[in-house]
Amino acid sequence: MTSSQLPQNNPQTGLDKKTSAILSYALGWLTGIVFLVLGKNDPDVRFHAAQSIVFFGAVSVLNIALSIVGSLLGTVGIIFSLAGFALSVCTAVVWVMSMLQANKTGGVRAEMPLVGKFVAPYADRLAG
């Protein structure tokens, strides 16, 4: 590997683009917020961070709503509990796939279905 092929480190975090992109998904929207602020010099890291915030934030809101509705409905609420469980399983799959995709692309933008198209126009504005 020549010096021009070495990954560039982000001055704020000391991490390269690939590692920053992967870690922006590590703890969901929480690390998304951290890397949105720390990765402000790299538009690809900002994109992954914004995508993490939007996806995992929406999942958090849906889980809370399903829990509240499920607890209010008593026995019928089991359906909402099962829906919450299914949402959690799907979220875990998307979480792993997002980190693997960020690793595979080397930290370059990789859109999630639905979320990526929504985030793309606004990713550069979120950190500014």
Can you give keywords for this protein?
6 helices, mainly alpha
Task: Please describe what this structure looks like.
- The chain is mainly alpha-helical.
- The chain has 6 helices and no strands.
- Helix 1 runs antiparallel to helix 4.
- The longest helix has 30 residues, at 43-72.
- The chain is elongated.
- The model is unreliable at 1-6 (pLDDT under 50).
* Sheet/helix structural class: mainly alpha
Mean pLDDT: 84
The SSE order reads HHHHHH
Major pleated sheet: none
Gyration radius (Cα, Å) is: 17 Å
State the shape.
Answer: elongated
Number of helices: 6
> Oligomer, anyone?
single chain
Beta-strand portion reads under 5%
Helix content: 55-70%
- Give the low-pLDDT segments: 1-6
Question: Topology, pairings included?
Answer:
Blueprint: H1 17-23, H2 29-38, H3 43-72, H4 77-104, H5 115-119, H6 123-126
Helix pairs in contact: 1-3, 1-4, 2-3, 3-4
Structure, briefly:
The protein has 128 residues and is mainly α.
